[in-house]
Amino acid sequence: MATNGTGGILDRAGSERTPSGAPGTRPAGGPPRRDRGGDRPDSPRRPGATESARHAVARARRGQGLRNTAVTLGLAVAVPVVLVVSLSLGDFPVPASEVLAWFVGGAQPTTDFIIGGLRLPRALTGLLVGVALGLSGALFQSLLRNPLASPDIIGITSGASASAVISIVVFGASGAAVSIGAVCGALVTALAIYLLAWRHGVAGQRLVLVGIGVAAILTAVISYVMTRSRVETAEAALVWLTGSLHSRTWAHATPLLWCLAVLLPLVVVLSRPLRALQLGDDSAAGLGVRVERSRLGLITVGVALAAVATAAAGPVSFVALVAAPIARRLTAGAGLALLPSALTGGLLVLTADLIALHLIDGVDFPVGVITGLVGAPYLLWLLAVSNRGGRSG
């Protein structure tokens, strides 16, 4: 400290302080005071530049919103188009005009049986399965902030598959009993993964690693049970494990439709805390979000979506993994993209089932074979890109 000759006191930085210690005026000849918002001393403020930046951000947001809306509308149009095509093709071709007439109640009795009794339950089951899996994958990947965090990678569908195979092979179950067993197996597996990953909270990477380990154990259990079963029983279980829409009726489509009628509103309600959780646990807590309660609710809904989809058609592979990334690429990473992810999942399963039915005349491939052909290369590409970028986890 030193005096400046006028009664003021100079501190070590050279700024003047009053005798009481409060900051005073700048001494003559001292360094100029820096502007708070500028890097250079005494830089003039430019209100025009700030306003231009604000307009640029607003234009970018409007453009992003228009693109998101256009992609969502495009997917919403593509889904019914593919649905009509899948209903019109088959051993007894039905013109698209008659398919549309069936929806308004103006179809012939023969068309009514072919569409309403045979083809629509299968197509509707596939559409709902794709919507559920796409939405489940989007929830897990957004919540855990990991592109590998989908139900078929972290063991949820493996738990459903193990339970269903045990029901078929050990207890001789079929039909609805297998579906109920699959749902129970998925829920129990998800609870076990959550408890094993708990360390004063659940971190995304730890849950993914625990899930991969649990999936490996359950895969071994499935293989052991299959080797101990009769050939006929093992064949039926293998078809279910591949993921198939063969012989799907209204008994499969209707329960799935009711389950989604309950789960979809829950997804809408939980999407708000999900946006905050994407910023990190501390930021979400600072915004007033109850982190663990919201995370548990989102995981429960995501598990339920994957469970009911698996119970209806078996573990249709890779749909939950690829639907959300495709939707985000189409929307250029706009937000959560939950609705585009759900529509993308439905479109994927519908298209895959259409290809499975008509790829080779007279051969009905399981839909899981087609989705596996698309999803396996994507998974390899994702692992390669993650390793190059040092984001393997």
UniProtKB/TrEMBL annotation:
Keyword presence, Membrane = yes
Gene Ontology molecular function, alphabetical: transmembrane transporter activity
Q: Which InterPro entries match?
A: ABC_BtuC-like, ABC_transptr_permease_BtuC
- Residue spans crossing the bilayer: 69-87, 125-144, 164-195, 207-226, 250-270, 296-324, 330-351, 363-384
Q: Where is the composition biased (Low complexity)?
A: 18-28
What's any GO biological process attached to this entry? Answer: siderophore-iron import into cell
Q: Where is this region: Disordered?
A: 1-61
The protein's matches in SUPFAM superfamilies, at most eight in alphabetical order, are given as: ABC transporter involved in vitamin B12 uptake, BtuC
Look up the domain of life of the source. Bacteria
Q: Name one GO cellular component term.
A: plasma membrane
Report biased composition (Basic and acidic residues) as residue ranges. 32-45
- Report membrane topology: Multi-pass membrane protein
Keyword Transmembrane helix present in the record's keywords: the answer is: yes
In which compartments does the protein localize?
Cell membrane
Q: Which family does it belong to?
A: Belongs to the binding-protein-dependent transport system permease family. FecCD subfamily.
Identification of the protein by name? ABC-type enterobactin transport system, permease component
Source organism per entry reads: Actinoalloteichus fjordicus
